[in-house]
Write a structure and sequence with these properties.
The protein is an alpha/beta fold. The protein is built from eight helices and eight strands; from the N terminus they run αβαβαββααβαβαββα. Pfam families: Thioredoxin_3.
Length: 216
């Protein structure tokens, strides 16, 4: 039985036919003793069938590709253009529930050329970054506010080569969530520092301000 309903399939086939101008590559990483890897693999197989512009590649975390993309946990998903160049857009954990919508929007954004959907002011400030910034957005499938934070972070990664934005499914990575003191979502940690975080789906200007201040 498929994970996507027939209604969702029809909607997404139509959406991708209208919106995708370029090929989009979804690079999936699995590993040993990975509870959700098979499920995410099945989900991506179904997504691939929705458009001939969606390419899915699958690798083991310990493969050369895993090292190339610096994959730390599984399941992992990296979204790129067809050339496979890492734009810093990542998911750790299966993008289900509300987060499936985040993946769909990412596919559309990359299908239009991976241009950041941010204000010119935000893009200008991000281009001035001179040191790497990692944004970790902890989410859950049932959180209706999480996609806004996740997409803002992913768009910031598209705006600057200095930014990597990872969306982490908090329930799947319980130990990591505990390490970062995640008690409510979206919980946004900066540079993997448990003491540098903010909580909530802030509007873009405030989100940027938090990222810049906490990364100093």
């Amino acid at each position: 039985m498929g994970l996507l309903s027939e209604k969702d399939r029809k909607y997404l086939i139509d959406l991708f036919a209208k919106e995708l101008q370029n090929n989009v590559k979804l690079i999936f990483f699995h590993g040993d003793d990975c509870e959700y890897c098979d499920l995410e693999s099945q989900l991506l197989d179904e997504v691939k069938e929705l458009s001939d512009k969606i390419i899915v590649e699958k690798y083991h975390k310990d493969s050369e590709e895993g090292k190339k993309y610096n994959v730390e946990y599984v399941p992992a998903l990296i979204v790129t253009l067809e050339d496979g160049v890492d734009k810093g857009v990542r998911f750790y954990g299966i993008p289900s529930g509300h987060e499936f919508g985040t993946l769909v929007q990412d596919i559309v954004t990359f299908g239009k050329g991976a241009k950041p959907e941010l204000s010119p002011e935000t893009i200008e400030k991000l281009k001035k970054l001179d040191k790497p910034v990692k944004i970790s957005v902890f989410v859950t499938p049932t959180c209706p506010y999480c996609p806004r934070a996740a997409l803002t972070a992913h768009n910031m990664a598209l705006a600057s080569d200095m930014v990597t934005a990872e969306v982490v499914e908090a329930n799947e990575f319980f130990d990591l969530s505990e390490q970062f003191g995640v008690s409510s979502v979206p919980h946004i940690a900066i540079n993997r520092n448990p003491d540098r975080f903010f909580i909530g789906a802030y509007p873009e200007p405030q989100f940027l301000q938090q990222v810049l201040e906490l990364s100093e």
